[in-house]
Amino acid sequence: MKQYETLHLVKTEDLNHHGTLFAARAASWLIEAGFATAACEHGSTDEVVMRNLQNMSFFKPIKPGTMVKFSGRVVYAGTTSLMVAVTATNNLTGEPAIEGFITFVTIDEATAQKKAHSVVLDETGDEEELKLREKALQMLAKK
Prior knowledge:
Blueprint: E1 4-9, H1 23-42, E2 48-58, E3 67-77, E4 81-90, E5 96-106, H2 127-141
């Protein structure tokens, strides 16, 4: 699937009491990147709502002044749901920093009921994407 990217500069107001990126700010940026990915693939921002955030993990602290690149791609497409994997890396060094999976559902605005989307996973030979798809399936199997 196509990968969508956003960049954020970590500033003083983004820090926690340890002087590193505050987890809630990171979660906000992760969700924003996931939403942009789901909405772009679906073709509308109006019908996409977040259902849950799963397995958000930090691999290393993120210091002020870091340019963080959030990359999202759809890794699972159900009938009404989309799971997006978002990874965050240091944009200058390429070092991985955060990973998380976000489930979105599509809804009919008039009825507020779930609505089918038309997103279909494409075939891929990308090993990283295949690993993310497998993780998504494992999370869904645990439900």
